[in-house]
Amino acid sequence: MEPTRSDRIFGRFKRLSDLKAGRHKGRFYRNSLMLILLIASIPGLITGIVMYQQVVGRMETEFNQMHQNQIENRARNVDDQLAYLEMNLSHWAFEPRFGNALRTLDFVYYFNETQEIVTTLYVLQGSHPLIKSAQLYLQEPKPILFNRDYTELNDEAKVQAYDRYLAMGNHVYWTDWVSSINSDTEPSTNDSPLHTDAGNALVLVHKIPGESINPFGALIITLDNEKVASLLKTLTPYDEGLTFLMDQEGNTLVTGNPGTAEETSAFEQQLKDEVALHAGSRSFLFRYEDQTYSVSYGSLSRIDSDWTYVSAAPLTSVTSPVKLVSKIIVIASAGSLILGLLLSWFASRRIYSPVARMLHLLTPGRNETTPTDAKLDEFELLEQQWNELTSRSVTAHRQLQEQLPHLRDSFVLQLVQGHLYAYNEHDLQQRMRNLGFELEGQQFLLVQMYFTGYEQLQGRFGSQDTGLVTFAAVNITQEVAKNVFKQISVMNFHDLSSAMLVIAPQDEPVKSQALLWGQELVEVIGRTLKMKVTLMVSRPAASLQELPGRFVEMEQAVAYRSVEEGSQILDLEDEACFRRNEAASYPLGLERELLQAVRLGKQTEAERVLEQFMSEITRTGSTEFQVQQMMLQLLGSVQHMMLQTGVTPYKLFGGYNMYEQLSGIREPVQMRQWMMNEVFIPYIQEVEVRSQEPLKLVVERTMLYIDTHYRSDISLENCADEEQMTPYALSKAFKQVSGINFIDYLTRVRMDAAKQLLRETTMKINDVAAAVGYQHSYFNRIFKKQEGVTPSQFRDQWFGQ
């Protein structure tokens, strides 16, 4: 029995309640709970005991050594950062764009090269987080500075300041002297690259061209002092202490000191003296103002000099927490054990909560656990459900992909036929993009195909197989079009006609391509289906909203195609394709002859004259429009003749609009067949029925007489005398109207009455025979012949049921 909606809701609620209450925990929950309890119970106690047994002095030594190793690793990181800057700058300095061509380049005239240099400096500036700014100074052909833009230096003081970069140091060197465009300070005559009177940041200079011994410019990278200080601060990983960088002469380049300048100066000087005393030891302990510092120092080899880093960290900051922590761990280990048990239990429930919710979401219909599910833990069950959902998703996706072509063609059909007039261009394009079309920068072209010559296929296809033939032609059209156009949508009208929407780039000659493709399609259809094709190509459209108008134009223009046998390719913009002979006249003589044959009911004669009529109006030069107009005129003449003979066309044709049906037929052969089968033959049959109306009344009176007097002795001669006819005429009329002989009808009436008496009364068989107009012996014989059993057996079978 299918569960009701309320039963399913109650089952889901019960399952969720059971999961929350913990009555249906799986193996994963139990195993994870025990594992968490075990893990939480042991580490605290072991850690406290081990920490307490360690000697504080040994810990100080070990931590100090660890600190030294940490400082060395971080120092290598600083060295790598600076080495990367040197290598990166050298890479850029040897770029061809910074070569000798800059000596003679007109930067104002060659604006693109100037912009490229500025962009390169931006890239160089962003290549490393320590870089604050990147500049290019050119001494020749005239003092020019590239920073955030192109600047010609006219101030002599500023020119001398930047010329100093070319005079100082080697080809590549470091300095802490920064020249500012806004500085009015006179340049110093000191050529030492480091520690000059205007220094406030580290600067890396590479003269250009990189391979030249006579440089005329320099790439100048200024580092961000705050970021460099932050980088040095990593050498002292504690809030207290001091870190600085000094050159070979002992001058401080950068410091990461968090204190004031006065405090730093005295402490820094003593550290420098201690470093000089402990040369070669790499690390030592230094006491200053009642604090012991762990001092580490080392050398940083730069491209033009060697620098020394010095890091001093208070030893108490390294080791003092260990003493307190070792005691706290031992004291708190017991409490942490109990707390760990409680937290692990709580954590296990919290861990299981999302699993329970996931189970509820993926298995909403499982009110009870099946034997198969009982063997699975939660994650195995989730995996099972996930695989099932994935399989369904793949199936749904495959079904969607199978239906997508039909959705595309259906949407395009509605668009072309004008059913989507309420949508604007943006909405139409968005919906087509959702269906997989690419519309950016595209143009649209409509091609309409009419497949003619179907009557020649009657041996292969029946009269009702037009839809099948159209389907085959549409498939062939799609296959041929895929080899020429990238985006198409073929519409099947199921009436030996179809249309195709072509979407192509705007710069392609899509119309000429369509005309060439049409020739190929005509050959393939003729070779495969033995049919002819009338193919019409519209004007290209720039928007989707223009397509319904193009389609209407083609529907109207196709009426002017030639009805001659053979394939045609028509260009809607080529008027010569539709210029036909207008001299065709209406054959009135044949019309009168045809109407006369139809009025007299001569079907064979009417077929012959109609064929002559069609041959006359479809002679060379006639268009489909002309043929349709003449056939419509003929239909009007036929209906007029019907009214004159007392036949109402509306009743004869069942209320159908015959003019509309005829207007939908395009081939002359089909027009002729339709006119004969749907108009002439029904009229001829109606005339024949009306001519037989008196005989029908005679037969109906005779049948009524039989129904009333079947108990008496009735014969064909008696009934003929009643109607004042010969027995032969009455017999022929009876057979023609009722479809059954006179004696057979009389026998059937008497047998029906006899069976009723046998079922509903207890009359003897002799009495039943007399009641229906038969003698006993003849009645038994005729009853068995008609029913297959005797009257007695019939009665026994009836009551035996």
From TrEMBL:
Recorded hits in SMART domains, A to Z, give: HTH_ARAC
Every copy of the HTH araC/xylS-type domain together lies at: 700-797
The record's keywords, sorted A to Z, are:
DNA-binding, Membrane, Transcription, Transcription regulation, Transmembrane, Transmembrane helix
Q: Which domain of life is it from?
A: Bacteria
Quote the Gene3D superfamilies the UniProt record gives: Homeodomain-like, PAS domain
Locate the transmembrane regions by residue number.
33-52
Name this polypeptide is given: AraC-like DNA-binding protein/HAMP domain-containing protein
Organism expressing this protein natively: Paenibacillus xylanexedens
